[in-house]
Structures are given as C-alpha cells and as structure tokens.
Write a structure and sequence with these properties.
The complex is a heterodimer of chains A (369) and B (129). Chain A has 369 residues and is α+β, with helices and mostly antiparallel strands. Chain A has eight helices and 19 strands. Among the domains of chain A are: 131 residues, Probable tRNA modification gtpase trme, domain 1 (Gyrase A, domain 2); 87 residues, Aminomethyltransferase beta-barrel domains (Elongation Factor Tu (Ef-tu), domain 3, Beta Barrel), CATH 2.40.30.110. With 129 residues, chain B is of the alpha+beta class. The chains are: A alpha+beta (369), B alpha+beta (129). Chains A and B meet through helix 7 of A and strand 4 of B.
Chain lengths: 369, 129
C-alpha cells in the first residue's frame, strides 16, 4: 500500500507538541512526546491523554440491532443495559479472532462498536454486511474523535473542566456530558490498567477538548502520551494487542479470553468451532513471562525449553516494564507447559536466555476498598 | 544539539575518541535522543576482533533494538561492564559514563574514514530532514 497515511483531527496538535509521528495501521500517529517512560509514569502516577481517533467507530440502529451485534460477537450483549459497555471479540466461523471490540448500548435500538484501526476496513465490511436488511449501519469514524484520559488523576482533571459528573459512571458505564465546553459521550473504559474515561466528540471539537485537558491537566502532572506508552501500559495490564497477541490464527480460548465467550447466549459466529475446542481442550495458551536472564524477549522471538532446543512457542509482545522494572512479555506455549512457575527459554539473537512463566497481569492498580 | 569537537564520528551516529592506537567508542547524543530510554546494552567480550562496518553489539530501548557497528577493525581491549547494570548511563552521559568499548586499531589508515565534528553536525542535520 502506498496511500498517504491518514491524519486524525488532532494531528496538528501532536506536531505542535513535538510528538514524534510514525506510520501506524495506515495512520500517522504520535509514538511519543516527552519519552515513553516519562509518559508511562505520568499515566501510572497522575494522568495521560491519548488520541485514539484512529480506532473505528460504528453505529448500529434499529429493532434488530441488538440481535445483529450479539450474533457477530462472542460476549453476551443481550444482558447489556442502557448506558453500559462490554469488551468482546468477534470471531470468524473457525473461531479465530477477527478483532477485539468494545460494544456500547446507548439504548435498546442503538449500539456503538469500537474496533481497532488496523481492522477497521475488515470490521466495517463484516458488520455492514450483517446489518443488511436487518438494521441501519453507519461508520461514524471520520466525523468523530476519540480521546482517552487515563490515570489516578483523570477525574480530577475532568472535574476541572466541568465534567465532575463523569466520576459517577460505573466501570464500563457510558453516558453524555460536557468537558471543556465540548459535548462528549464518555465511557469509563481504557487500555492502560488505570481508571479513566474515553471521550467521543465531534471531529471539529477535538482540538478544544485536547487543549482544555492539557491546560488543566499539566499542573496535576498530566502528559500527552503516545502509542509507545500505550503499548507498555497495556502490556503491564495484560491487555491483548490485536496483530500481536491475538489475530486470525488464535482463538479467544487460547488467548485467555474465555471469559468473553458466552456459549449460553445462543448462536453466534464461531460458536461451533469454539465449542469443539473447549471440549477438546486448547492446544496452547497465551502466558505471561518474566525474563530471569539478561535479555529482553520481544515480539516474534522463539520460546524454547529452558535448556534450549526446538521452539515450543513464540513471544507475541514483550519489553521492559517501566512500573515493575522487569523485562516481561506474553507468548503462546503448549498447554502442557503453561503452568505458573514453568522455566522457559527465549531465543534472543541466537542465545537462549532464561525466563519464567508468571501470574498476570504484571501490574494491577490498587483499588479503593 | 552540540557536537563535541575533539571526537570523530561515523554515519551510524557513533563517536570515537582517538588516543594513540586505542579508540574509545560510544553513541552520540543524537542517537540517544532517537532511541529514548536505553534499557539494555549487549557488548562483545575483551579480545574479540571486530571488523569495520560489521555489527558488534546491540543497544535496546523500550521499543527498539539497534545494532552497534564497528567504526574500525581491531581487537576489543576494554568493555564498559557497568552498562550491564546501568544502561541508563548511556542516556545520562553518552560521551562519558556511557562509553561502550575500547578498540586497538589494527591500521591507522582507517581513521581517515571517520568524520570530524563539523562533518558530523552536517550529517545530523541531514538525518533530521
């Protein structure tokens, strides 16, 4: 593909802030501003804002919208109440993952689906086709922007911009509000392991919202954060990255996402294949590991037995974890070798470096008792 | 960005300090800025014979893995072992505590292939546009 990269409504803001712009899934996005570790720490200790407008935003409307969505995803949207969202995956008939999504129920006939930028064309096509003759479908990605505000001080920042009522949203709650004078739809969701919201607004309002958040947030320690910090934050929280940890060769059961597969809800795309795999047992599992030897396991590196030998799996995500100070990663290993405490080797530039399978997430925020 | 005048440079953003026939090698402030936080430095052992232009080690940052290229041919006579535990020294002092190896030059003629500070400053300028 030689098409020029696309730009979000906040592109000029990123350039103004000195963001280092890189190509990502057909978009030109900031990978970092002040530095990945600095941004990572800001999100863990104060707050960070992320432009995630490159993600796809789809709307389904009509009497049968609920049934269509529920047929396309593995989680049970039938139990979703108005103003609530859920995390799910959409599979193909083979039970492997087309994308991971968040589905929002705005009302009984109104649903929003957010998909990954890298899968937008695929998911738009898949959902549009399924909606034909059943409900209305709109891709509203280009008319809107999406900004994530994450971190322990996220709600303090929002309160400073007239959005104090947003702190009343429950986890995965969804509602409308005003922030910095901009009308937003807010969801208490994120991809960092911290509390916070993701704000949907009109594309033309995005810069006002972004600047307002920066102005009020900076004195509280807020930083604009790029894709680099987004990746280290989500890895510590063991949130899967599509294209790395999950893709069309992996099933949700193998990826440890069995909790979003609800067999009891009735038929859905991929159900038969997933039932079969569930009955037979998964051949491999996505596990977390910590490096024990000196080395950093990264995406694509082979996982081998502890003493060396032929590959038994592959690292899907890996790198330094700024919060824990350890080198961590995720990867697939045979189910028989997936127990916590199992010693494995990661092949790094021809040498086998020792690692150990550990409990995940690598980082979990302390929540109020 | 200031470029120390007393050093020589390669196109791969490494600096070389020439003291007789022993060369101290590190990466420049420009390289460090591009890498971000250095998290691991993999260096050869003393005695290893390097070949000019070939990879001899690796610098890893949070998101990247970059090869180090030998600025000249020669044997490694010293390695900065402190970087194993303190890779952040590369960020803090790229021209000081962040040095990587010392190489005993096999042939003094090789120095002609290195840039002086003025030429390197131009090279950095070109790399950023």
């Amino acid at each position: 593909m030689t098409e020029a990269p696309r730009k979000t409504p906040l592109h000029a803001e990123h350039v103004l802030l000195g963001g280092r712009m890189v190509p990502f899934a057909g978009w030109e996005m900031p990978v970092q501003y002040a530095g990945i570790v600095k941004e990572h720490e800001a999100v863990r200790k104060a707050a960070g804002i992320f432009d995630v407008s490159h993600m796809g935003r789809l709307e389904l409307q009509g009497e049968h919208a609920a049934a269509v969505v529920n047929y396309l995803v593995t989680n049970d949207c039938g139990k979703l109440e108005d103003g609530r969202a859920l995390y799910t995956v959409a599979c193909n008939e083979e039970g492997t993952i087309l994308d991971d999504l968040i589905v929002y129920r705005r009302g009984g006939r109104d649903f929003t689906v957010v998909c990954n930028a890298s899968n937008r064309d695929k998911i738009v096509g898949h959902f549009r086709k399924a909606c034909e003759n059943h409900c209305e479908f709109r891709d509203v990605s280009d008319e809107t922007a999406l900004v994530a505000v994450q971190g322990p001080k996220a709600f303090e920042v929002l309160a400073g911009l007239g959005g104090s009522e947003l702190s009343k949203l429950p986890s995965f709650g969804y509602g409308s509000g005003q922030v910095a004078g901009v009308a937003v739809q807010a969801a208490r969701t994120g991809y960092t392991g911290e509390d916070g919201v993701e704000l949907f607004c009109a594309a033309g309002d995005a810069a006002t919202l972004w600047r307002g958040l920066l102005e009020v947030g900076r004195p509280l320690g807020l930083q604009p954060a790029g894709l680099g910090a987004r990746d280290t934050l989500r890895l510590e929280a063991k949130l899967c990255l599509y294209g790395n940890d999950i893709d069309e060769t992996t099933t949700p059961l193998e990826a440890g996402l069995g909790w979003v597969v609800k067999m009891a809800k009735g038929d859905f795309v991929g159900r038969a294949a997933l039932e079969k795999q569930k009955a037979a047992g998964v051949p491999r599992k996505l596990v977390g590991f910590e490096m024990r030897g000196r080395g950093i396991g990264r995406h694509g590196y082979p996982i081998v037995p502890a003493g060396g030998g032929a590959a038994i799996g592959v690292v899907t995500s890996g790198g330094p974890s700024p919060t824990t100070g350890k080198n961590v990663g995720l990867g697939y290993v045979p189910a028989a070798s997936s127990e916590i405490g199992t010693k494995i080797g990661i092949e790094i530039r021809g040498s086998v470096i020792e690692a150990e399978i550990v409990r995940t997430p690598f980082y979990k925020r302390e929540t109020a008792k | 960005m200031s470029v120390p005048q007393d050093l020589r440079y390669t196109k791969d953003h490494e600096w070389v300090k020439v003291e007789g026939d022993v060369l101290t090698v590190g990466i420049t402030a420009f390289a460090v800025e591009q890498l971000g936080d250095v998290t691991l430095v993999d260096l050869p052992k003393e005695g290893k014979v390097l070949e000019s232009g070939k990879p001899f080690g690796v610098v890893e940052s949070v998101k990247s893995v970059s090869d180090l290229f030998a600025p000249v041919s020669g044997a490694v006579v010293a390695v900065n072992g402190e970087l194993a535990d303190h890779p952040e020294n590369v960020n803090a002092e790229p021209y000081g505590k962040g040095w990587m190896v010392k190489i005993k030059l096999s042939d003094a003629g090789q120095l002609a292939g290195l840039m002086d500070a003025a030429a390197y400053a131009k090279h950095v300028e070109a790399s950023t546009h």
